[in-house]
């Protein structure tokens, strides 16, 4: 094994998930190499929506300001019946829990270009395009669990010669047909949803009847989705019968009929120059989850690990959450010698979360637009009635990204009063710091952080010192009261935040100490800590 062929991390797949993972690793000082089979960014639109949690991740990699110039905040989601009457509405705030609009529409190639530009500015990151990975193997040393480095074999465009390199870890963000998934012996778990839909992306200057949000047409015969993506960009999704082809001589008339509720098109296609179909493609919407996300030092992210129908706009969001959850843990193991068991928490935390989001999407698909059985109409009526109950729509919106399940890094204990903060995200208000108005995460940095409403105790200080975490008193931040109210609702004096801004531990009101250091400290204890940093208490 030659030193020149060794890499700390190899990322297979240079889409938004893989590039974001590389940028996050770079923030923690970890070098990575991305191997991407395409020569350039795929130029046509695919993902078109992200939520405020994902915009916070984009903030962490330094592209949020540029993304804001490309994104279009949306008002939310409306469920409509076949006659386009509103069944219910799920409103989305312009300032969500994470400090950004709760729903943002965008063009994926534009986001990918931002991420690639950011990648080029990071010396820790390298991108090799036009490279096909042909195998990923690990040395088992005769034991069931692989150990040691991972060998990646690849070929460059136009060459049959196989080349090899070694990595301390491999991240497979190589999509639904993932070679990495096969390499770790993972198989799909079918979550019982599969439908064929036609997706149509359009650019037009014609007047379009829209409410600046997404619309879901709940009709068993012709369900549809419509959304405005940009200033003159729109997307329609239709579930069509096999014989309802939009190509050929009658394609324009069929398209004209489909989009008629939103925009008026001339009978003659030659007069429709101001209605440009950028792309139309047939997709099979599926609900699947890989049965394992890790083997040794090989991990699955994004569509390699999970597939969801697009009805709640969480496909790309789930992949970027994977990257945010895994990268800080991998950096702590590779850079500071933390226990390898820390990496087990990636699948333990992310898999149940992904399963939940997929089930929400499937529920929307079946209850509102899917199925033509006798119960379909009944399900739609029940959902419509339930959504008229005060508070239900806001609860469903929150449920798109629930708290992480309990585990070594999420210590959740039943409480008689107050919210359980562990496993939830810290809110991100605007704060004052060094005389400037900034977002909270810009003050906290990329590592752990202690956020407190009381003077820190000796134990709180010791924990912060051991983790290299800044201790920030909320009174010094001059926010709008968001942080104090959040801590008060959780009956907490202070919280310990992970690098991904999830609450790991709390100081309950009046107690003075974090409650569960014994549970998480062994995983985070580092073999290469600095001389003046004591072990975690």
TrEMBL record:
Transmembrane segments: none annotated. The keyword Aminoacyl-tRNA synthetase does not apply. InterPro entries: FAD-bd (IPR002938), FAD/NAD-bd_sf (IPR036188), PheA/TfdB_FAD_monoxygenase (IPR050631). The keyword Manganese does not apply. Pfam families: FAD_binding_3. Residues 8-359 form the FAD-binding domain. Keywords: Oxidoreductase. This is Bifunctional 3-(3-hydroxy-phenyl)propionate/3-hydroxycinnamic acid hydroxylase. The lineage of its organism: Bacteria, Bacillati, Actinomycetota, Actinomycetes, Kitasatosporales.
